[in-house]
Every structure is written in structure tokens, then in C-alpha cells.
Amino acid sequence: MKTQIFESFKVTDVVFLAVISAVTLCTSAVMPLVVSLQPVVFGIANLVTSLQISFFFTVGLVKVRKTGALFIMSLFMGLFQLLMAPIMFFSTLSVSLVVELLILIMFRGYKKNCAVFTAMVLYNPLGLVSNVLYNLLFGRETALAVLTRAPVVTVCMTVAVAALSVTGALLGIKISGELEKSGVLKK
Q1: Is residue 187 part of a domain?
Q2: pLDDT tens string 40-72
Q3: What is the separation of C-alpha 176 from the centre of its chain, rounded to a whole number of angstroms?
Q4: Is 2 domain-assigned?
Q5: Count of domains for the chain
Q6: Which DSSP string do the residues of 67-100 spell out, in sequence order?
Q7: Is residue 1 in a domain?
Q8: Would the pLDDT of 124 be above 80?
Q9: Domain extent for 39
Q10: pLDDT at position 1, please?
């Protein structure tokens, strides 16, 4: 039996992904509290949102195991981020496209938990890379100075973002499994 790589989305799928995106945005509302530290500490905004994004997006991908689900969640989240800062919108959408492509190549979709886990482990750290590339392209010297001024802090923050992404993905898979067993999260 051959599985389809690109499945169509039902209205319930899109609504669920939109709700997951909204919850992710609400729980990421702590980010404005640390935004003033961005000129001093590399990746601080990513650090305080990595756990929530990984956790809730994992739940979304476990429920809607279709190629493009990550992009849809990122698009919903990105539309609100566009109002705050274009770099957040650019980063969210570009990273989701890269991760979708990698998962498609490596796993042919999100049918297995290891594909969901890999996607969420890559998503937030690639957001750091995307922010650096954006700043290189558009010449925001302050952000680049933060990156190079304290390379040890940069490495530590990148490792911390990755660790929180792993934690969020593992928790998301575990809790989604329990919700599926109890019948709350139906596929």
C-alpha cells in the first residue's frame, strides 16, 4: 500500500492548526519582556519561546500528520508576528519551509513520531540562523555585533534553544500520546 505524501487538509485540520498557533502565540507573550535584552544577549527571544513553540507545534503535527501542517501553523503565527516585526515573519515562514522540505526528503512526511521530533528539534535553532541571515542581508549591525561580541554566550544560547526544543518536542509527543490513548486527541 503506497502512502500519499501530499494529502488535502480538512477544515477541521486547519481550524485545529489555527487554534494551536493561537495558543502558541499566547504562551509566547513573554517574549516582549526580554526584547530589550536582544542588543545584549544573542537569541534571548528565541530562548524564551522555544519550549512553547516546540511543545504546541508537536501536538499540532501529531494530530495533523500532513505535509504542510508546520507551514500552516507558522503562517498563522507569522501573520501576527508581521505586525510586531518583519524579521519574525520572515524567520518563521522561511524556517518552516526549510524544515518541511527536510522532513519531506528525510521521512516523506510526519507519519512517524521521529519525523515530528526532528522537525521540532530543527525549527527553533534554525530560527536563530534565519535571524542572522536576515541581519546580514539587511545590514542590522547591532544584531551582528551581539553575535560576534560574545561568542561563548552565542554558543550557550544556541545550545539552550536546542535543549528547550528537544524538551518541548519530547513533552509534546508524550502528552499527545496520552491524549490519543484517552480519546481526547483523535486523528
Answers
A1: no
A2: 888 888 999 999 999 999 999 999 999 999 999
A3: 17
A4: no
A5: 1
A6: TTHHHHHHHHHHHHHHHH-HHHHHHHHHHHHHHH
A7: no
A8: yes
A9: 11-182
A10: 46
